[in-house]
Amino acid sequence: MADPKSSFLNVYSILKSELLQDPAFEFSTDSREWVERMLDYNVPGGKLNRGLSVIDSYKLLKDGQELNDEEIFLASALGWCIEWLQAYFLVLDDIMDNSHTRRGQPCWFRLPKVGIIAANDGVVLRNHIPRILKNHFRGKPYYVDLLDLFNEVEFQTASGQMIDLITTLEGEKDLSKYTLSLHRRIVQYKTAYYSFYLPVACALLMVGENLDNHTDVRNILVEMGTYFQVQDDYLDCFGAPETIGKIGTDIEDFKCSWLVVKALELSNEEQKKVLYENYGKPDPANVAKVKALYNELNLQGAYAEYESSSYEKLVTSIEAHPSKAVQAVLKSFLAKIYKRQK
């Protein structure tokens, strides 16, 4: 058996060649080359955690039974649908945020000859998902549920992105809007559903489960996704750039980060003034003042406290779940993120 990542990447090649031969569209050489280059640049480049966790979750739900080739292929195909969804969000997200790099290379829209065509490429990526589902799942009893699931999660993610964007509108920067409940709503919708719930929901559908019977699983995974984002916010400021692979810019970007929300909660009037005057400004001197205030307020301590209480709460909720197989899935997710450094 090849290592999981390389067999997962083989499935990418199969899905890609099917999409490049899709009978619904008559490809020219140019258009086929464009789509292939666009896919290779945007889809398989990340850590692939979301996609691979569909296969891991499916194995655990099957109680460690040996999976046959078809099962591995189908679980991989669903994993790739999530990676396609992620690529679609990131291509458009980078345009909206006017970003420069993604995964250590220039954003797709920054490439010469691509530019704003990237907006349409995002739409193409989005439309590949139902093509893949139709090719491989149309005969399955859970086909309609899969379509519903992807549509619903996409809607939730786009709505989360909207709250995030309207909160950080240029010219309307207002720290008083930033609260823990706003932070939670942005994170829940923008990140938690597609990164945490979606892979497990795909695996549950494959084993014949009805998702309506698993709202508790969804709630635990959304909670985990929130915890993951708080870690991300923390690492953006306190993580070592050489470990996390990027230089954090949440302070400069006026992000509704857990740290700034917590700082507002803990600050006296004097300290709040420092935040209001320096947060969201690109000058390193302003950023340094915000970081100094974070240290003064001991946000590292506040984070350590948040981390341990979240972890305990998650473990308690997971252990209360009646199914040992579902517990195993949830515990494997938690193990991947607890105390991570990047």
TrEMBL record:
<comment type="pathway">
    <text>Isoprenoid biosynthesis; farnesyl diphosphate biosynthesis; farnesyl diphosphate from geranyl diphosphate and isopentenyl diphosphate: step 1/1.</text>
</comment>
<keyword id="KW-0414">Isoprene biosynthesis</keyword>
<dbReference type="InterPro" id="IPR008949">
    <property type="entry name" value="Isoprenoid_synthase_dom_sf"/>
</dbReference>
<dbReference type="InterPro" id="IPR000092">
    <property type="entry name" value="Polyprenyl_synt"/>
</dbReference>
<dbReference type="GO" id="GO:0046872">
    <property type="term" value="F:metal ion binding"/>
</dbReference>
<keyword id="KW-0443">Lipid metabolism</keyword>
<dbReference type="GO" id="GO:0005737">
    <property type="term" value="C:cytoplasm"/>
</dbReference>
<comment type="similarity">
    <text>Belongs to the FPP/GGPP synthase family.</text>
</comment>
<dbReference type="InterPro" id="IPR039702">
    <property type="entry name" value="FPS1-like"/>
</dbReference>
<keyword id="KW-0460">Magnesium</keyword>
<keyword id="KW-0753">Steroid metabolism</keyword>
<keyword id="KW-0808">Transferase</keyword>
<keyword id="KW-0479">Metal-binding</keyword>
<keyword id="KW-0444">Lipid biosynthesis</keyword>
<comment type="pathway">
    <text>Isoprenoid biosynthesis; geranyl diphosphate biosynthesis; geranyl diphosphate from dimethylallyl diphosphate and isopentenyl diphosphate: step 1/1.</text>
</comment>
<dbReference type="GO" id="GO:0004337">
    <property type="term" value="F:(2E,6E)-farnesyl diphosphate synthase activity"/>
</dbReference>
<keyword id="KW-0752">Steroid biosynthesis</keyword>
<dbReference type="GO" id="GO:0006695">
    <property type="term" value="P:cholesterol biosynthetic process"/>
</dbReference>
<dbReference type="InterPro" id="IPR033749">
    <property type="entry name" value="Polyprenyl_synt_CS"/>
</dbReference>
<keyword id="KW-1207">Sterol metabolism</keyword>
<comment type="function">
    <text>Catalyzes the sequential condensation of isopentenyl pyrophosphate with the allylic pyrophosphates, dimethylallyl pyrophosphate, and then with the resultant geranylpyrophosphate to the ultimate product farnesyl pyrophosphate.</text>
</comment>
<keyword id="KW-0153">Cholesterol metabolism</keyword>
<keyword id="KW-0152">Cholesterol biosynthesis</keyword>
<protein>
    <recommendedName>
        <fullName>Farnesyl diphosphate synthase</fullName>
    </recommendedName>
</protein>
<dbReference type="GO" id="GO:0045337">
    <property type="term" value="P:farnesyl diphosphate biosynthetic process"/>
</dbReference>
<dbReference type="GO" id="GO:0004161">
    <property type="term" value="F:dimethylallyltranstransferase activity"/>
</dbReference>
<keyword id="KW-0756">Sterol biosynthesis</keyword>
<dbReference type="Pfam" id="PF00348">
    <property type="entry name" value="polyprenyl_synt"/>
</dbReference>
